[in-house]
Write the structure tokens for this entry.
Amino acid sequence: MPSSTPRDLLIHARWVVPIEPRGAVLEDHSIVVQAGRIEAILPREQASAIPARQVLERPAHAVLPGFVNAHAHAAMTLLRGAAAGRPLEPWLRQVVWPLESRLVDADFVRDGTEQAIAEMLLGGTTCFADMYFFPEVVAQLASDLGMRAAVAVPVLDVPTVWAATIDEYLDKGLRLADEYRGHPLVHTFFALHSPALSTDATLARVRTLADQLDAPVMIHLLESADDAARERSRHGIDPVDRLERAGLVNNLLVAVHCVHLDEAGIGRFADVGASVVHCPTSNLKLASGIAPVAAMRAAGLNVALGSDGSASNDRLDMLSEARLAALLAAGATGDAAAVGAAEALEMATLGGARAMGLDAGIGSLVPGKWADLCCVDLGKVSVQPVIDVLESLLHSASRADVSDVWVAGRQLVEDATLLRIDTASLRARTNRWQSRVLAARNSLPGN
Amino acid sequence: MPSSTPRDLLIHARWVVPIEPRGAVLEDHSIVVQAGRIEAILPREQASAIPARQVLERPAHAVLPGFVNAHAHAAMTLLRGAAAGRPLEPWLRQVVWPLESRLVDADFVRDGTEQAIAEMLLGGTTCFADMYFFPEVVAQLASDLGMRAAVAVPVLDVPTVWAATIDEYLDKGLRLADEYRGHPLVHTFFALHSPALSTDATLARVRTLADQLDAPVMIHLLESADDAARERSRHGIDPVDRLERAGLVNNLLVAVHCVHLDEAGIGRFADVGASVVHCPTSNLKLASGIAPVAAMRAAGLNVALGSDGSASNDRLDMLSEARLAALLAAGATGDAAAVGAAEALEMATLGGARAMGLDAGIGSLVPGKWADLCCVDLGKVSVQPVIDVLESLLHSASRADVSDVWVAGRQLVEDATLLRIDTASLRARTNRWQSRVLAARNSLPGN
């Protein structure tokens, strides 16, 4: 680079955790950001000669790629804590669906998603894959707020407030995909609710469209044991076989949960380069179980991490998800090294980027990728001493220790404070929804 | 109370979560504190007429009893992150014991314990049961800093830096118990490392002394599957039977971990009023497994929560432990309601107080008990909206949301800042230990 031209931003960090190569920790290194992208990562002494318009000192901090939340239903923040103590099916049918049918509209989605983006940014998440209604509202909001998002075209064989027929779902979805083609922040993909709620014809149509657009296809798969048995009895075929018959088991598949995916299924997904999104908190809270993540990774399957929605996971906190993924893998396998700190942090970043087909641009700190950055203060009292940086980052630090966040080089969080969200306005709106949700919940049968 | 005499402290809180009765949430209530104790809990409109020397408004906060960490090795903060990726036995034998033998002395214990107290207070913990060497240093420090502690007399059938023989352990321990008899903050109990490291003669002596002093007896029990098998092969008897033969299965027993305690053992412990300390993070990290907490609670057994030491759990964070306990119970049993938010918060407070025989004075917000209080700000961005207070407290709030902490009516944390610990001095000392621990670890074989 011509050393006389000032660069946009220079961050001198105590540690840089680039995620690639796995396990690397660069001490006293600096990140050069230019035109929204990472230009270079250099030892501090080399970087300090580079002129820059903004120079930041982060002397007790680790800078890593922003987290990629690979499975969210962002607007469901407004249903946080509304449905506790129920397993998947009663949770859906007795509380979540009835509340959604009464409450969800474009305003619900806008306010709930803004609340989710606020929470995710404060916790270091710079990209989320969202699966909900009114995706055009989510896309516009993410673009307005400077957040990176992969926004699903939801495809359901049941009518909802957003679309009445499969044709309407797909027409609206294709317009959305068209509108955001080439957008620097907003990406689109297809989302099927589950095999149970999709006809063979729908699976086939989505497969064709996804292939044409080279877009990921996300689907909830084998979340609970009941789920698995019900799908088999309904369609007379194993759900993985059914997806395969529809041509959907390929490198565009993003299978969410997979708590009950067996060894054969793991092998088939690994062979074709599909991805799994592990949602450990949600799977525990809904009593679904523990996904065989160590076996998936051993088979070479790409595993991403997701928060799921706030009605089954009261925090959109990727650092917590990564920590829990590592702890559960050890506890479930009896191998304390099943998923190490480096692997858990990789799942929470690059794993999600790979699942969503975005790893050429995000997921690790590599020159040329977008400057989607998360800076964690390891200097707080409760984190001392720091003997092993990756262990401290994963297990001792908390989302509250995230000090700064950038998306595409634009700073969205500074000193643990949101720079581009009007939190007072947001609070007023979430307060109003709080009253409406409480009233609606209290009017449900059995509540 | 005579309304003309000013009371010491009046806290007007949005919510009071007294833990007793279970699940209660008192909205717009106030806590009256006098002479270190809770004098009354009243609706705000009644309390506002009471004159007080200090009146605090906590308009978006929940006040609950301070957490009781029922199993800590506090000084091990200095070994945080030093031994990751190993299961229990290699973790102990290849890293923890070799490091301890090189490093542990009274200074290590003083500095490591001060670091632990700082971290615990910032996270809302007001009492910890500690099991380590140099308990006289821990007791003095807790008393100096105003922290409540139950400090173990460690009893091991192996010589350590603190004592060479069983006689020396017990002589020193009895002097300690004598010195702190009737102390308002510091309590003492006996701690056996494990059945494997205790002779029958030692079990018998501890039983006699504990009965005389009416002091709890803590012991690591059935932590790993290996552990259980090894103890059986070594002593030719099930470890629970061996404790029973020694007369130790009674209401003073505090059995830590119990990951592999079977149904019969659960029943026997429940029958006599013994307690179990569940350490969910540590049990996962060391790949020991998941303790059958739902079955224990269903049997009527008192379950407390513990962090364990920082070498197997990189955070001394009782809110995290309580959350994980609830999530794991659901995931492991298939019952999403196995351990609800009210139950998890009870385990983290009253459960620990009961285990340590301290529930007449702490563990719930009841007039007459000590004012050991933790105040959590539920008004932060990432916690909105609050539909269900206990769910939000357990699952959405974090230790970083703890705003204020009092022990026996004395404020130790205000605005998430430690009032009585010199954090600069502490940091200088933990930094020095960080270098020493790193050097010692790097000199171990295989590192």
Summary: Chain B has a mean pLDDT of 95. Chain B has 15 helices and 16 strands.
